[in-house]
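Progress note, sequence design subtask.
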């Protein structure tokens, strides 16, 4: 039978932002509930070696880091629900959310931390080599390609920025774009074209990412020309897919203000949304940095802001009507 759960603070999402928000909220005696969603742990669940999260001298595994965050959140008092929020009502307090299980979550405050998903090409070979030479984050994984050859797929700002970042590590960076011109800002294009480490391949699409060895890793890429169909191959050590991200905000549309790309709008320098008592943290509101450590930082901010808001601004309908 569906149940009704009441809490001072509901966290929706279980990545670095959500877990950190829950940890801080629990330590602030808010007795939070965290609804984990479809992919607890977020994008770090498909990240193998993590070398840029503070506190670890050696590389750690992304799934292990998320398991530790979840365990810490539970240890300090968070209730983690394996459910997916399907409906929200932010029109009045206490806020009401409905899970896929049928359970109802009644909360004084809500932190949205549902993250964003990298867009992929959709190739079986791309999925096969994720974490073994295929990545969607140059800042996360570029360090592993020092002195190597890599390709970046895409033609917008993100792709050009990723390519330029990779020149700090890789010996050769090839940008591959399906069209004959880039969508990126002109100043970024100029930097790209002038960089001695960068090549650009126009009007080609990726047919297959190839690999080999034990364990299997990326060794190259097979391309085809969009007009002629003529194929060519490149020997590579890594492939970075930079065709954009999709924020996980469909359930919040028309309930909280989103920008033109679907990210939750937050007030500058804050995690507050346009709805009093609703906050947003992590990649669901950050289209620039998209790092685990910055997501965790905004999760902390959201919990502290929610705690302050409950103390100074709003009474607690959940407690009053429990």
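Output:
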């Amino acid at each position: 039978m569906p149940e009704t759960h009441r809490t001072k603070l509901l966290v929706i999402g279980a990545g670095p932002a959500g877990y950190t928000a829950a940890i801080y909220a629990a330590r602030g005696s808010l007795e939070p509930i965290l609804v984990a969603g479809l992919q607890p742990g977020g994008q770090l669940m498909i990240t193998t070696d993590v070398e840029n999260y503070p506190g670890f001298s050696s590389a750690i595994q992304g799934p292990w880091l998320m398991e530790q965050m979840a365990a810490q959140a539970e240890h300090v008092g968070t209730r983690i629900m394996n459910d997916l929020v399907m409906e929200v009502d932010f029109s009045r307090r206490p806020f009401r959310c409905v899970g896929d299980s049928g359970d109802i979550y009644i909360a004084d405050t809500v932190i949205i931390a549902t993250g964003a998903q990298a867009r992929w090409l959709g190739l079986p070979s791309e999925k096969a080599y994720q974490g073994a030479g295929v990545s969607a984050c140059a800042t996360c994984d570029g360090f592993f390609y020092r002195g190597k050859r890599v390709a970046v797929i895409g033609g917008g700002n993100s792709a050009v920025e990723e390519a330029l970042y990779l020149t700090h590590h890789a010996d050769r960076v090839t940008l591959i774009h399906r069209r004959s011109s880039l969508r990126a800002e002109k100043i970024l294009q100029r930097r790209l074209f002038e960089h001695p480490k960068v090549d650009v391949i126009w009007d080609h699409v990726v047919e297959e990412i190839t690999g080999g060895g034990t364990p299997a890793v990326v060794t190259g890429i097979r391309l085809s020309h969009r007009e002629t169909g003529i194929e060519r191959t490149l020997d590579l050590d890594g492939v970075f897919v930079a065709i954009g991200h999709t924020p996980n905000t469909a359930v919040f549309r028309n309930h909280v203000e989103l920008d033109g790309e679907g990210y939750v709008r937050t007030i500058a320098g804050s995690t507050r949304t346009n709805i009093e008592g609703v906050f947003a943290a992590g990649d669901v509101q950050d289209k620039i940095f998209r790092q685990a450590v910055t997501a965790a930082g905004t999760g902390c901010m959201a919990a502290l802001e929610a705690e302050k808001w409950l103390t100074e601004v709003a009474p607690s309908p959940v407690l009053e009507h429990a």
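The chain has a mean pLDDT of 94. Work on this subtask will continue into the next period as scheduled.
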